[in-house]
# Entry
Amino acid sequence: MRVGFVGLGQMGKPMALNLIKGGHQLRVFDLSTNAVSALVDAGAAPASSPADCARDVEAVITMLPNGSIVRKALLGDDGGLTSLPKGAWVIDMSTIHPFESDAIAEEIERKGFPFVDAPVGRTSDHAVRGELLILAGADQATVARLAPLFDCMGSETIVTGARGRGIRVKIVNNFMSIALNALSAEAAVLCEAIDLPLEEALKVMMGTPAGKGHFTTTWPGRVLKGDLSPTFMIELAHKDLGIALDLANQVTVPMPLGAAAREVYSAARAAGRGRQDWSAILEHVRTVAARTDTK
Amino acid sequence: MRVGFVGLGQMGKPMALNLIKGGHQLRVFDLSTNAVSALVDAGAAPASSPADCARDVEAVITMLPNGSIVRKALLGDDGGLTSLPKGAWVIDMSTIHPFESDAIAEEIERKGFPFVDAPVGRTSDHAVRGELLILAGADQATVARLAPLFDCMGSETIVTGARGRGIRVKIVNNFMSIALNALSAEAAVLCEAIDLPLEEALKVMMGTPAGKGHFTTTWPGRVLKGDLSPTFMIELAHKDLGIALDLANQVTVPMPLGAAAREVYSAARAAGRGRQDWSAILEHVRTVAARTDTK
Amino acid sequence: MRVGFVGLGQMGKPMALNLIKGGHQLRVFDLSTNAVSALVDAGAAPASSPADCARDVEAVITMLPNGSIVRKALLGDDGGLTSLPKGAWVIDMSTIHPFESDAIAEEIERKGFPFVDAPVGRTSDHAVRGELLILAGADQATVARLAPLFDCMGSETIVTGARGRGIRVKIVNNFMSIALNALSAEAAVLCEAIDLPLEEALKVMMGTPAGKGHFTTTWPGRVLKGDLSPTFMIELAHKDLGIALDLANQVTVPMPLGAAAREVYSAARAAGRGRQDWSAILEHVRTVAARTDTK
Amino acid sequence: MRVGFVGLGQMGKPMALNLIKGGHQLRVFDLSTNAVSALVDAGAAPASSPADCARDVEAVITMLPNGSIVRKALLGDDGGLTSLPKGAWVIDMSTIHPFESDAIAEEIERKGFPFVDAPVGRTSDHAVRGELLILAGADQATVARLAPLFDCMGSETIVTGARGRGIRVKIVNNFMSIALNALSAEAAVLCEAIDLPLEEALKVMMGTPAGKGHFTTTWPGRVLKGDLSPTFMIELAHKDLGIALDLANQVTVPMPLGAAAREVYSAARAAGRGRQDWSAILEHVRTVAARTDTK
# Structure
């Protein structure tokens, strides 16, 4: 395919290179002339602007740092949409705010172009090897048509089913993994501070929800099917968190996430959930977040 | 074996029943006469006090709500240690503060008795089925000698290697799983609030550290071997958390753990770790918790 | 003076009315024609756009919900700057992100116009009565020239001394008062949950830093002059927070701010500040926030 | 009066000295013989145990680090109550957990002795000068009878009206002032990070609830009389917190309390309070903490 590629950073550059290797004809744009040169050496045509980059292509791909830059590259005075041929695809692979993505997508669709949000997972190493995870905000048919592109850049494409879901699942997934990283560090440093070898603790935790998570262990049999009868009661979980926090404070391991969690369980107890299953924390958070508009 | 069992609550009762089923001779004590009756019906001898319970046994087991109750049951005026035969084991299976466990253990050891902390994992259903996870604060030889007891109550015994480590790993494991539960709820409710089907998100997350955790994915190849070179930089992780938090605040999904996490990453950036791998958060928390005693 | 006023919301409308009452000639613009009508009834001239509004005036004032709207109103295709007479003032009284304010200001200054950020404090009631607090990002001479306007809208103008400081102090002040409100609620609800009459507690707290704050009590004699010798040690403060948190968790009063504070003190202890004065928390936070760029 | 004084630490020692200066006859006990010697030099009689210390006195005062030490000193085998003359007062001036204080008090009262919790406010400097704030958990008549003691140690005695309220108000007051200290540091460091001179910001904040607190400013006219009509809406406060947090994260000033506060406002918005007055945060926290026992 003929592809315009805007944004040749740490991720964009290897992605574009893999498209060239895959046999696609690329026209590339980036503010950094060095980045452009590297791609030109590999066979790409240089573009002088996003508009120039989108001329005569079948798809334009953006891989940029934030929503306002994506907006400018596509919808600005000199943006891709000013020259993009009718029927060509707009594929934004950047990680941006989902509502900004929605707004950009709607504007592009109003101009008559099909838009797909397709942010990527994994690391720059994966980008180099063409083994990214692609989270396509599109249905099966659309993904099938774009597979020649996606398959050059990634080794797995998730079909989320609808426009906007790619960027949504990206943000939720990153939120969870990034925050979990900080929580894991609190647990690990607590281990070290109480002279418990980390490997010993990891060995145990890998066999429990501590290491395996709750999505496929404690939740499916209980809260996800509406059963809140206790296997482990919220009030006991709350008690154990209190012990862990007191311990951590004695050995001066600050645990801000752990401390926040204790207060969530405390609120769940106040809300009458003390004797419900601990998976009912999901139900509790749902209640807290549920918009009530008359008070 | 002849066993004294103190504490016949939701967990203690099925554990004691399984010891009887396993052929052990039990003398039992609990403040609730109903609980005692149930065990007596199953063949146990009733005791009038912890002291009475520990008379003539080879091991006394406690399964009680907190450290001061354990202390009283073992070391009080009418406690088990007043009558326990020389050489008999003291096994505390309760979940209590590790430092309280240490203090009780040391006092008991000073009186010449061997002490093992052996708290249990899993749920009351597992207790009924004799399928608990037993976290033995003991070495291999000790666990081998107590296996006839442990194997009646649990289906798996972790040998942590030293006294005090059973209760330590219990508290760390519970901390991690309980706090992770609250964090998972934040991610799940965010999904729902932005019209992203939870199953769709879970499908993706089960293939990433969001669902698989960091202990066996991102940490071993990087921070655990001292390599902080980036596959995904802390400053990008920080940026993504900011997007998720802004999104969550727009759709009024309160995320106290997520908000705390963002500030941890912010502190890591301030500490000069912005361009390190995200697994370096472990190193950051280690630094924050490291005692410096001269300032 | 001849003034263009853009943004006639809950605050902007009474502010504009007070300018008219003060004898100024107003041209006004708002997307709501109702809001415009109200001002026209009071003597203002209606404008069809921000550009129209800024025609022929000595100063244009914006009072708008966020930075991108302010940017559009001033610097957009149809923005005030397209028609503003040379030498006229641009005064943004909105509460927006300080860095957005800076960027807008710089662009405006590059076009040759003087810019003042002058956000307001207090409430809509004060706006009606012309008793706002005006936080002028300007020097004394500039404020003197704009006093005829400011004095119609407010009863007090703070001269912060330089462009950008008005909006900065607004954000810091609002941050502090808004977060303090939530912290105060935690303390008050804890009172109620432990049967301590709130008035009784308030009576005590109004005589201590709990009610009077630290800025003028504990800080000036210690941390603000570099003296960290203890009047009340951080490790005792940390201990007391622990008691309060345990108490609150027992009576299920969730205290997320309190819990976060305990971890801050824990980190300060880890950093070797346990025996420093509690005002040294300022020094601790400074250290945590200090950018270190080599790690 | 003849007084037994147990606990001669940083606070207890100057308090005991001031009692001697005030003409009282002291018998003193502490584990540190140095501390005892200092008091003996000043005219006190040394005691060999708490029991010895309480012999023949009209009041026994405890000033000790935590509840279990207070319990042991008063109710232990060698505790003060074993020798205390009938009718003598027990006055605990320590800062301990209120529920531990209650339990100790009840046990003492069951033995027929009057108990007063009278923890102190202010610093060790104030203790030296006899200028402590005494928070007496007692009614007016009791305080009048004990005034000869209190007036030697403190310059102000708050009569809270009932046993248990002294220690309660102490804990609430300390919670509020200690957490507020950490919050104030976040605001101050944010100032410094955005090049806003701290004095400039303090000048402004001392005139607003940021510096004056909410107890006597925004609350009395609104939430404390049940009026939630807005002077400043929760949703605007939430928006401003978001700006402050984004700003702080950009300049890497970690603000864990601020971040927690933003989520509280988010929850309040979800609960339908977005258009209520910001003082309604008190009402929101009340609702979250209100025990609901059927779910």
